[in-house]
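Usage example:
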Amino acid sequence: MPKKKGSPHYQFLAEKWTNRHRNLQSEIFSKHKDAFQWLVDNSKQLTVGSLASIFLLVSPAAAKIPALSTTSAQISQTIDRKVFLVYDLRNVLPSDVRPLSSDEEKNVSEILARDFGIPVSAELDGKRLNATYGLIGQEQHLPLYPGDNIFNHFNNPAEADKYWSYGMTPGLGAWGYFTDSSSTLTQTDIDREKYYIAVQTFLSPGFDTNPKEYTDFFKYRKMLVVNPQNGKAIVADIADAGPSPWTEKQLGGSPEVMSYLERFDGSQRGPVLYFFIDDPNDTIPLGPVSY
Amino acid sequence: MKGKHFYSHLIEINEIYVSISEMDLPDKERNHLISLAEANIHATIINTILPELSEGDKKVFLKNLVVDNHDQTWSHLLSKIQDAEEKINRSLRELKKELLKDIEEAKKN
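Running the assembly step on the lines above writes:
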């Protein structure tokens, strides 16, 4: 059944005024890019809250405007694409943090795939997690091999200075050590620990029916994790199970993941989107994603 | 205007609201068009102001705007742009004329 488009008067004006508004936005951002970039760079100090609020500076009613025939990402490549991502996600995400409906997941995965050029989905090989949108908490470093500790864990002094204080878990990740010893340690192992997330594998639908199959599937499975409020995204891997449901958080991130996404624990905690990456040939590297 | 803005005291767009209402549209469509008209007004004003400011003053303006300080935004503009009120009004008059013309065109369709 064709989608109802509304009355002809409405259609004519909505299309004309939407295009006019988008052209104006485009002109404003491209002509004064430096000033907006300054605002983006200083958003934390100015307690702006999110890039969305910056985008709304030139579009107070944008959140109320439904999409017509084009998406904002098609307007101009010169505009900070993170801003568009925040804007587009804002239009499809619920105001509260809750599990997304199938339609919402589809909309989000289409936006993420389009903006990052990475095939993402809520479900892969018939398996899915209990959520794709949830609150992320702070995790500690995981030991890479027997004998790894917080004093020898880092590659360089700069990383040690930045991430030392988060400490190391007293136990192991869900799949034990990443390798047997420091002599067999590879860059893949280092990256898997550095960019790991913990998700509630044990709550995934169907987990109880075949725990081993599910556990094998989740092991080091790549996911695209996105902070919808600033547009920052990272390719992470599942290297631990958790957090417990009573924490009211749905996943956890390594110190490096949390730092990059600018997410914090405690009263400042916030949501992220996390979708499976379909990468059968292991060609997509772990770490921050650029546009 | 649905929300208060630093330029709210300059705007008289009842004519646009009335003209949209005359088209006998469902509430949802009418409200959407009003939102679009207001979004165009807002963007037009920003587009009028920013070219008049130095790089440093653009930052001050955007900062004031983002923290929603209407009085400070307006007094900053008055101190930095000669005839700020007239320049904004001129842009608004032109936009209003265009929006009303669009509405008339829509009614003929």
